[in-house]
Amino acid sequence: xxxxxxxxxxxxxxxxxxxxxxxxxxxxxxxxxxxxxxxxxxxxxxxxxxxxxxxxxxxxxxxxxxxxxxxxxxxxxxxxxxxxxxxxxxxxxxxxxxxxxxxxxxxxxxxxxxxxxxxxxxxxxxxxxxxxxxxxxxxxxxxxxxxxxxxxxxxxxxxxxxxxxxxxxxxxxxxxxxxxxxxxxxxxxxxxxxxxxxxxxxxxxxxxxxxxxxxxxxxxxxxxxxxxxxxxxxxxxxxxxxxxxxxxxxxxxxxxxxxxxxxxxxxxxxxxxxxxxxxxxxxxxxxxxxxxxxxxxxxxxxxxxxxxxxxxxxxxxxxxxxxxxxxxxxxxxxxxxxxxxxxxxxxxxxxxxxxxxxxxxxxxxxxxxxxxxxxxxxxxxxxxxxxxx
Length: 389
What we know:
Largest sheet: 7 strands, parallel
CATH architecture of the largest domain: 3-Layer(aba) Sandwich
Number of helices: 14
Structural class: alpha/beta
Shape: globular
Strand order of the largest sheet: 3-2-1-4-5-6-7
Radius of gyration: 22 Å
CATH topology of the largest domain: Rossmann fold
Order of helices and strands: EHEEHEHEHHEHEHEHEHEHEHEEHHH
CATH superfamily of the largest domain: Glycogen Phosphorylase B
Strand content: 5-15%
Number of strands: 13
């Protein structure tokens, strides 16, 4: 019988894709009997159930008059060294390369021969945005390459990482897809067109559908203001209503566009919610007009709920959303995207077929237990390789 592993998972605590996946992976590993510590600057917003083998340890920030802000890269490195000093730490899994892979490089030098295995998972903007900055590229590329293992959730991001971070051809990158909890993100027992309207009712007035749904961190890369133009165009053919979940820097711009187009009665802004699954499950379509998606965790959650996804064919999104469970149109063709939504929403049989295909794709390709198992095998392969050296 193989012994349980002792791991540390380093991540950001917010509700962005990297934080959600990191915590869900930690929970999955702990459920398999491994000892897992989650290291972050604050307790993660993603749910962490009470498990004997799962714990959270805060990365403290240094307070000193010399610093305008705490040196986070050093804070992470120091915490890794501290946890490794407790003994029996097999592996540290770093989520989001910047600056976590640089912290790992510092920790490895500090620990010397006692250093654990280091794995970095690249998530998207750490490659496409920050990794593309010429001032960062050499440091990030060297830090990532120094890790014992590197993973990406999509083939697209693997190839982007090689190109943008100028990684050597022999840098091994394992593609391990993101996953979804298909038991939690599941279609409702009964779809009721009125149920979502009741859940988002304002002043006692429940809007009617079809309902379009969107969840994100409202950063510029999500192009959220286009959602308002999309709902306006869809409403030329269908009495649709748009539901927005999340918060971020572009929220004010979205609110302004709603006012400009007079869409106030037809858009509901719910803000940040940690539990929106019931609402998502009653939606008719999920809309994702992103500028780029390395994978598309939000899209996968929608598929798992049996909700077809409509978006731009960018990045790794086509590795998640196939033609039978949604529609991806040419990048930034807003009219084509609105037309695709109308075409499916107007055809009851086509919508029902897309819903079934969406759920089936999540079940066949992105089950949490199978993908956590893939990570476990990857860890053991790296550990065995290190022992043979």
